[in-house]
Amino acid sequence: MADTTNEPIALQSPTPYGYTPTTWICILFVALYSLTSIVHLAQAIRSRLWWMIPTVVLCGLTEIIGWSGRLWSSYDVQNMDPYLMQYVLC
Questions:
Q1: What's this model's pTM, rounded to 2 decimal places?
Q2: Dihedral through CA 29, CA 37, CA 17, CA 8, nearest 10?
Q3: What is the 3-state secondary structure (H, E, C) of the chain?
Q4: What is the pLDDT of residues 56-70, one digit of tens each?
Q5: Closest Cα partner for 65 from 84, 45, 42?
C-alpha cells in the first residue's frame, strides 16, 4: 500500500522563506516606499505638521530598509542577515 501522508515535500536546500523572493517585486516596493516617504515628508513640511516628520522618517526608513533586505535575499537566499533585516523591519 502507498504512503498517503500529507507531509510537505522537502526542498533541496531549505531557505528561510521557503522560496526565492522575486527581484522585480522587491525593486518595485523599494521604489514605491521611497517615493511615498518623500511625498509624505514634503506634505508634512508644507502643512507644518512637525510631529509627523519623525513618524514619516522612521516608518519610511524601516520599510525601505526592510524591502532592501528582501531584495538582497533575492540574490543570496541562504544568507540569514537580509532575512533577519526584512523580518525585523517590515
A1: 0.79
A2: -70
A3: CCCCCCCCCCCCCCCCCCCCCCHHHHHHHHHHHHHHHHHHHHHHHHCCCCCHHHHHHHHHHHHHHHHHHHHHHHHCCCCHHHHHHHHHHC
A4: 889 999 999 999 999
A5: 84
